[in-house]
Structure formats: C-alpha cells, structure tokens
From TrEMBL:
It is a multi-pass membrane protein. Its main location: membrane. Belongs to the ABC transporter superfamily. ABCG family. Eye pigment precursor importer (TC 3.A.1.204) subfamily. Residues 49-288 form the ABC transporter domain. GO terms for molecular function: ABC-type transporter activity; ATP binding; ATP hydrolysis activity. Signal peptide: none annotated. It comes from the Eukaryota. This is ABC transporter domain-containing protein. InterPro entries: AAA+_ATPase (IPR003593), ABC2_TM (IPR013525), ABC_transporter-like_ATP-bd (IPR003439), ABC_transporter-like_CS (IPR017871), ABCG_dom (IPR043926), ABCG_transporters (IPR050352). The keyword rRNA processing does not apply. Keywords: Membrane, Transmembrane, Transmembrane helix, Transport. It comes from Manduca sexta (Tobacco hawkmoth). The keyword Transmembrane helix applies. The lineage of its organism: Eukaryota, Metazoa, Ecdysozoa, Arthropoda, Hexapoda.
Amino acid sequence: MKVDKESALAGPVDTKPIISDRKGSLKVTITPAQHKTLTHLPKRPPVDLAFTDLTYKVQEGRKSNVKTILKSVSGRLRSGELTAIMGPSGAGKSTLLNILTGYKTSGMEGSITVNGMERNLSSFRKLSCYIMQDNQLHGNLTVEEAMAVATSLKLPSVTSRADKEEVIQEILETLGLSEHHKTMTSNLSGGQKKRLSIALELVNNPPIMFFDEPTSGLDSSSCFQCISLLKTLARGGRTIICTIHQPSARLFEMFDHLYTLADGQCVYQGSTGRLVEWLGSLNLQCPSYHNPASFIIEVSCGEYGDNTGKLVRAINNGKNDIRNGQPFPETTPNYNNKKDMEVSLNAGKEWDKNDLSQVQEKFADVVNGSNGHGNLQNGILQYAANEVSKGEPGLVLQMETEKQDNAEVALLGTDGSPRRYATSELTQFWVVLKRTLLFSRRDWTLMYLRLFAHILVGFLIGALYYDIGDDGSKVLSNLGFLFFNMLFLMYTSMTITILSFPLEMPVLVKEHFNRWYSLRSYYLAITVSDIPFQAIFCVIYVVIVYLLTSQPPVWFRFAMFLSSCLLISFVAQSVGLVVGAAMNVQVCIDIDICVLSIIVFHRLLHRL
Ligand SMILES: Nc1ncnc2c1ncn2[C@@H]1O[C@H](COP(=O)(O)OP(=O)(O)OP(=O)(O)O)[C@@H](O)[C@H]1O
C-alpha cells in the first residue's frame, strides 16, 4: 500500500492542570499531549474547492412556478481549513452542501472547480466523503467489524491484511474509539457514533470531507470534541466543510473559515476572527460579550434591519474573501469590464494558496506599471514573463505546476487509477454478502417469524384444500389452490423486503454515494444472501401443502411444483426491493395491505 508518512494528523493538545499545594500558591503545569499521527493512510493531494455564480432552482407545483434557492453565490473552500457554512434556517445551507458534494446535480447552474479545474463529478466523489446528519450505521456490527468492512471496501484489494489492521487500529486510537472496538454500534453514544462515522470514511483518507450538522444532538462537551476532531483533520491538510446551526462562541472560534448564507445569498465569507471587524466596518457593531455567530445570524434574519442586500454587495455574493492579515476588499469592485472581473477572480484562485499577500505585493507594481487601469491579466502575464526571462522558474509557474499535478490526480481519482471504486465488483459482492449473512446470524427474529409464517400458512392452506389432489371432480379447487399458493408466496417474499429495505436505504445511500460499492454488487449480495433462507422456507411450505392436499406422489411433479414456487418467491423478492427502494415505509405498508386485501377478496369470491 502507498503510504504517506508525512500526512500526519496532529492530535489536539491536552492540557493537564496539576495542583501542587492547596493552601499555598497554586502551581499549574500544562503538559502537552503526544501528537497523534496517522501514518498508514494512503497519500492524497490537497484539494481546493471553488464555486462561481452557483444558482439552484427547483420547480414547485406547476411548471411555471420556479423557486430559486441559491442565487448566484460564489466561494472558495481551501485545504487545511475548517470551514463552517452558517445561516438562518431555510437559508440554503444544506442545499449548498448537497450541491458541493455532488448529491444534487439537476437544477444547478454555475461552475464548481477542483484545484482550479472544472469538477469531474465522478472523480470528485472518489476524493470526497459526505457524512450525513444522522449517523447512518449498521447497528448489528461492532466498531471493529464496521471498520473491517470499510477497509475491505475502501482500500485497494492489494493492501495486505496486516496493513488494513494497522489502519484500523491507528484510526480508532486517534479518534478515541479503541476502547470500544468490541462495542456494537447501536450501543455507542451519540458522540461515539459521530466519531465512528468519521473513522469509517477516514479509512481512504479523503482530502475533502463534508459534514451536515456534525454537532446536532450532541452535548456541549461532545460538540467540542467533535469540532476539535474536525479541526485536527483540517490541520492534516484536508478540506473540511460543515454546516452548523449556531455554534457557541467557543466552538465558533475553532473554525478557520466562515461562509454565511441568508436567503440563498452569501453575506459573509472569510476568517471567523475578522467577522466582527468586518461587520463593524459596515456599521453593524456586534455588542460586547455577544457571540459573533449569533450576531451574524441575527443580522441575516433582519433583527437589525434589512442589511442582507448591503452585506451581499459588500462581500460580492461570495466573490470577496476576508482573509487574515489582508486589507478588506473594496465593497464595490470597479472592474473595467466583465472579463477583467473574471480574470481577477481566477487570479485569486491561483494565487492566494498560502502566501497570497507576498505574491500580491510582488506583482502589484507590475500591474500598476503595465496598465494604469488595473488590468490584472496583463499584470500577471508580464510578471510571469519577467520571472521566466530571469531564468528562474517563477512562483507563478511553480504554483501552476503544483496545481496542475493536483488537478491531474483529482481527475484520475484517489489512488491515481481512473476506476470508480477502490475494489473490484467481486470483492464488493463478497464483503457485502459476508456482512449481510452476519446480520442474519446476529438477528434471528425475522428468520423465526418467516419460518413460523410458512409453516402456519402451509397447514392452513393444507387444511383448506385438504385431500383435493387425487379427486378429478375438484379441478377448480386445485386451480384455486395453485392461485392461492402463488399469492401467499409472493406476499411473504415481497413483504419481507418491502418492509426491511427502506430501513436499510439511508445506509446504502451513504455508502454507495461515498463510493464503497456499486449498486449491482450490493443488489447481488443481498439477493444471494437471502436465497438459501427463502429456499429452505419454501421447501418446508411446499412439502406441507403438497402432502396435505394429496398431490400425486411423483418426484418429477413435486420438483416442478417446487421449482415454480421457488421462482415465484425469488421474483417477488426482487419486486419487493423495487417497491421498497422507490417508496417510503408508509406507502410500502399500504401496498402490503392492498396485496393482503386481494388475497382475502379472492378467498371470499371463491367461497361464494
Ligand atoms: N425540493 C425542494 N422544493 C421546494 N423547496 C425546497 C426544496 N429543497 C429545499 N427547498 C427550500 O429551500 C430553502 C433552503 O433549504 P435548505 O434545506 O437548504 O435550508 P437550510 O439552510 O439547510 O435550513 P435548516 O437550517 O433549517 O436545515 C428552504 O426554504 C426549503 O424549503
């Protein structure tokens, strides 16, 4: 496995106060904790994500009724930074996150770039992970087992077992879960579940991680731990983006970058530390001892008057970025024409990686010298030409090359291969099959119920059509028996999948979206895993009804009857999956009741 010894994940620094003397002077010693490092993760490029003039529209009701949720917002999310997307409820935070992750694609206009190149969604999804609000975990696995599944699916098959185990151990230790490695995920606390969700996705070291409300449902201490962890991940060079409602002042300070939305527009983009100063410069004074996070939300909600327009203009709907150590941008940029503005923005994308201020200083002279009207494009070109003519690879070219490399890696995917998934479909099938069989082994309740239903209905139908098989005058009864038989087998097979699959869907969506496995592998695995059970239940049922209804004791006839019953139940199971995937549990239950009503109705008709 390709490992990056330098991709260190610096752990949070623990401070340990030691009180030496209760009566006399208090002596406090602060002992920094050992820095935790993740040394076994695959090497990944840093990823900067930028979006320009992003608009998202949805159609409501009639065709003409179009609602604009995001209104031409722009922004830039850098590697090595922890970014918070904030805003009042309904401002469009989740929508923006869903678009940036690639979870929503239709109805979107504008451009999204990865390291300066147009985003290739398929490759981007290999580079990123999306951790949704409700921890979508399988409750029937231990922490260790869940991690083993993740490593088997997310690391290339060539990775040795020992390497995988080291990755698991290292991540669990770093995330403080090693003590709980034998605990069932359903028994973990909310904070531990959140950490496990992160641990599962960290396995392939995605350089860009999205979190939807990572602190929801956590107490203040767990919130702090969670954000500390995200900050630590960001410090390791990753781009960490999360939506958050209203963090406490303590949590707010931990974010490097803030992107605030109000009514689908950007009202602030920049470092959290400069928010109050920036708002002050726009005559919006944050009261002393007031949480800046609450203040910007209150301002966005209109509690201090209608300032949204002013803020949006000042920040140029996300095109301006308030960076530490840099002067505030002009509130109304005065570009010569649209092209100049685009060049200026693109220049910002390329230049302000780490030390933009230095670079800006360097070429400011050239810009002014070459074109008194501030045409940045000429300035940049001239600066680059000067650097090249000096015989040195200039900073521009160096950075371009570095970006280019990253962009190439971004296009190829995580491990430099253009493949969609880290493992082959056969491996995916095998891992998901083993996991599904483990679930069945852990929870026999459903199996017992299915067995009981097949035996009970077998005896009921047997009693209803008792001894009809040999009687030539009861051909119609035989026909009824066959029809009822088919309905029952269809009903039981469909019901199981219709009712259980919607519960599984959120985990499937998360895992498939995060490129753990293909839908084909998943479908094959869960279908194959149920075949033996369905076959056994079907055989038991068929033996009961065949004997009770006195069908001809000929092996060939029995085999034909059994085969058709097996086929009916397998087909019904697939239909159940389709219905379960397409509809929610409520609709599924309604469909189930409809099928049951048809059976009862048929019986009544038959009796009449
Ligand atoms: N498919 C849709 N059809 C109609 N309106 C939608 C759709 N999706 C989102 N919206 C609307 O877009 C707005 C933004 O929704 P979004 O979920 O992004 O808000 P949010 O900022 O995440 O809110 P919250 O903090 O309450 O979760 C809301 O007014 C919502 O009703």
